[in-house]
């Protein structure tokens, strides 16, 4: 029985580090930026090795089991427009309408409250 891990990347730093990690995972396992396998004959390209972190879509592409969220959309927009933009499911890239302006209380109690609930 396989195991599944969902990565959650929050805020500017979390999204930037998460994006870099997913690029590294793809390079390690021979997954192209669009989610296809580069060379299926390589041993590290076997889905049993990376199935914990990726799920296979109905079209045969591999999609990260990840959620990226930031109240301010700039960093998520970089992921959406970046070289690995076709890798991620657009429904897992969540942005707010306004940021918390580097104020924890504002992000926790007002602006970000609707996303937590």
Could you tell me the number of beta strands?
A: 5
* Uncertain ranges: none
**Mean pLDDT, rounded to whole units?**
84
Calculate the terminal CA-CA distance, rounded to whole Å. Answer: 33 Å
Q: What is the overall shape?
A: elongated
The fraction of residues assigned to DSSP E strands is: 15-25%
Return the structural class. alpha/beta
- Residue share in helix: 25-40%
Q: Report the biggest beta sheet as strand number plus sense, adding barrel if it closes.
A: 3 strands, parallel
Q: Which sequence of strands runs across the widest sheet?
A: 1-4-5
Radius of gyration: 16 Å
Order of H and E elements: EHHEEEHEHH
Total DSSP helices: 5
Blueprint (SSEs and pairs):
Blueprint: E1 7-10, H1 11-29, H2 47-50, E2 54-56, E3 62-64, E4 66-70, H3 74-81, E5 93-95, H4 104-111, H5 113-116
Parallel strand pairs: 1-4, 4-5
Antiparallel strand pairs: 2-3
Please provide a written account of the structure.
The chain has 117 residues and is α/β, with parallel strands linked by helices. Helices cover 37% and strands 15% of the residues. The chain is built from five helices and five strands; from the N terminus they run βααβββαβαα. The chain has helices at 11-29, 47-50, 74-81, 104-111, 113-116; strands at residues 7-10, 54-56, 62-64, 66-70, 93-95. The strands form two sheets. Strands 1-4-5 form a three-stranded parallel β-sheet. It has a two-stranded antiparallel sheet with strand order 2-3. Strand 4 (66-70), helix 3 and strand 5 form a beta-alpha-beta unit. The protein is elongated and about 50 Å long. It starts with 6 loop residues before the first strand and ends with a helix. The mean pLDDT is 84.
